[in-house]
Amino acid sequence: MNFTVMNLLLPLALPPYPFKLTDQNGQLFIFDEIRKKQILLTPEEWVRQHFVQYLIRVKGYPKTLIKLEGGLKLHGMALRTDVVVFNPDGQKILMVECKAPDVIIDQKVFDQIARYNITHQIKLLAVTNGLQHFYCTIDFETRKYQFIQELPHYTF
């Protein structure tokens, strides 16, 4: 593999998984088992695929209740959420914002997921760059949030 490919495959602070990678005309693709298709591998996609596997294999979230790259409209703008997880009743229970490993998780990133959550109104949020992970719960009645140490296991 060349240097660029090796940069895409950096180890993350998530368990390693046996992804199906293919080279198509010099571009690396990863098979996404949620969307059931090959996706161009970017640093952000590398993080998203790892985090989704973490949700499924470690935290017990059913892959049938995970949606990737979902669209939403906010103030007339078309936006995309990275990961949204539902409960069996179709209610949104978790939203995840994924960034490339070289992106620093700062206030700008938290503001982005907070803007998305204006539309979604999800009580559990996660932000990750694959190296750092932040989780918080939101109480919409009291308009307060609380950071938590660990993402809860799926319990529905």
Summarize the structure.
The chain is α+β, with helices and mostly antiparallel strands. The protein contains 3 helices and 9 strands.
How would you sum up this structure, described in words?
The chain is globular. The protein has 156 residues and is an alpha+beta fold. It contains 3 helices and 9 strands; from the N terminus they run H-E-E-E-H-E-E-E-H-E-E-E. The chain has helices at residues 3-8, 43-57, 107-120; strands at 21-24, 27-32, 37-40, 66-74, 77-86, 92-98, 124-128, 133-139, 144-148. It has one domain: tt1808, chain A, CATH 3.90.1570. The protein starts with a helix and ends in an 8-residue tail after the last strand. Helix content is 22%, strand content 37%. A 6-stranded mixed beta sheet has the order 4-5-6-7-8-9, sandwiched between helices. The protein has a 3-stranded antiparallel beta sheet with strand order 1-2-3, with helices on one face.
Q: List segments where confidence is low: pLDDT < 50 over at least 5 consecutive residues.
A: none
Estimated helix fraction:
10-25%
Strand-and-helix sequence, N→C? HEEEHEEEHEEE
Largest sheet geometry: 6 strands, mixed
- State the end-to-end CA separation: 42 Å
Radius of gyration: 16 Å
Query: What is the number of strand segments?
Result: 9
Mean of pLDDT: 89
Overall shape: it is globular
Task: Please tally the helical runs, counting DSSP H or I stretches of 4 or more residues.
Answer: 3
What is the CATH architecture term? Alpha-Beta Complex
Count of domains? 1
Secondary-structure content class: alpha+beta
CATH class wording = Alpha Beta
Provide the β-strand percentage band.
35-45%
| CATH fold type | tt1808, chain A
